[in-house]
Design a protein that fits this description.
CATH topology: Rossmann fold
Strand order of the largest sheet: 2-1-3-4
Order of helices and strands: EHEHEHEH
Distance between the termini: 33 Å
Strand content: 15-25%
CATH architecture: 3-Layer(aba) Sandwich
Number of helices: 4
Helix content: 25-40%
Shape: globular
Largest sheet: 4 strands, parallel
Length: 107
Amino acid sequence: MNSQPIINVAIADDHIVVRDSISNMIATFPGFSVTIEAGNGKELIEQLERAKPFPEICVLDIQMPEMNGYETMNFIKETWPNLKVLALSMLDDEFAIIKMLKMGARG
């Protein structure tokens, strides 16, 4: 019997292929489980509000429709300050990542 605790992960990215790829990659690591997949920040927050179990880590895209990564990051830090966030971006702009780190992203 495996007694290793499961680390639950949420992913928010508007590109379903990217989201599925990240989810599949995470699933290959023992002890990790993707429990939430969302296409934008609004969907992520709606799912987090009713999540059981609540994720320990969130992989958050910066550029998304409806509610982008910056807006979502602000909401997460105000509502769930212990949720660890990893910023994800295809932007070739280091300032976008630096801004997310200053807002509280862990990496």
